[in-house]
Amino acid sequence: MNRIITIGREFGSGGREFGRRLSEELGIAYYDQEIISEISKRTSLSEQYIQAIVEHQPSFSFPIHIGRSFYPATSPVFDQTMTVYQEQARIIKEMAAKSDCVIVGRCADFILKEYHPFRFFIYADMESKIKRCREKGPEEENLTEKELKQKISGIDKKRAKYYEIYTGHPWGDKLNFDLCVNTTRTSIKDIVPVIAKLFA
User: Fold this and answer.
1) How far is 198 from 200, CA to CA, in rounded Å?
2) How many degrees, rounded to 5, is the angle at CA 80 between CA 17 and CA 38?
3) Is 30 helix (H, G, I), strand (E, B) or coil?
4) For the residues of 106-165, what is the DSSP string, one character each?
């Protein structure tokens, strides 16, 4: 069976960077946004709309369809949400079956439970998350500290709700993970090579 590593993470904790650096250190595949792109190809839904669904905020202000109409159902939002999750689960299993890999987010730890992945959860205190967000993206530059804190908390609440709906388990519960990593005041670049030795 392939070596599978899943990364759950709080927003701003550096979980995406952790996953990417770990995959590079181990020389294995890394999957994140690629999953969204593949769902879009398979469902004819736009990547922007799929991203909204997986963040648990479907909105008709986005272009829902690409090319053809999709699911003329009585509850299209529900049907599309379920279709995206089912397709996402199928793609994640295909990726895990194909090669050793690191998969970030998207309930991969639960979807791949029969593969017995090594499950990380990355977290940090609010001060560190605010600092990381400031450093990483120009979008946050115009937000006050209070607004940025609200954004971080809001995204984590959506992630928690999404995870709990589809897995039936509380998001971030240490019992669901093999190793929880606190990145507060920590250089991810420095800690990843040490953690990678677990898989040597």
Assistant:
1) 6
2) 40
3) strand
4) TTHHHHTGGG--EEEEEE--HHHHHHHHHHH-GGGGGS-HHHHHHHHHHHHHHHHHHHHH
Tell the residue number behind the tokens 């990483």, with chain if given: 136
The residues, any chain, with a CB within 8 Å of residue 86's CB and separated by 6 or more, are none
- Residue whose entry in the numeric block shows the structure tokens 């550096």: 14
Question: Which letter does DSSP use for residue 68 in this model?
Answer: S
Count other C-beta atoms under 10 Å from residue 30's C-beta. 19
Residues of the chain with pLDDT under 70: 34-81, 138-141
Nearest alpha carbon to residue 83 among 107, 60, 103, 53: 53
Rg (CA), the chain: 17
Count, residues in the chain: 200
pLDDT in tens, 71-101: 444 455 556 667 777 877 888 898 899 899 9
**Cβ–Cβ under 8 Å, residues 130 and 148:** yes
Helices 15-26 and 188-196, interaxial angle, to 10°?
40
Q: Indicate the pairing of strand 4-9 with strand 118-123.
A: parallel
Predicted confidence at residue 95, as pLDDT, reads 87
C-alpha–C-alpha distance, residues 98 and 7, integer Å:
18
